Amino acid sequence: MKLLLRSTDPATIAFAQALLQGEGIDCFEMDVNMSVLEGGIGIFPRRLMVRERDHARAERALQDNGIATDG
């Protein structure tokens, strides 16, 4: 798995996941449960991971839709 996106904005993560799903790219969201530890104030970023072989295509799909990636 390779890091594609890191964000504290759940809407950005959800939009990115929807875009990737539409492209047929599997992704995995990490650090979701950190919000329980932080009290839901959004200080710990969530990470969106993709397979290494899908990374370039996923990065292009997000950037084409105005989402900056960390890749």
Automatic annotation (TrEMBL):
Residues 1-64 form the DUF2007 domain. It holds the Pfam family DUF2007. This is DUF2007 domain-containing protein. It comes from Roseovarius nubinhibens (strain ATCC BAA-591 / DSM 15170 / ISM).
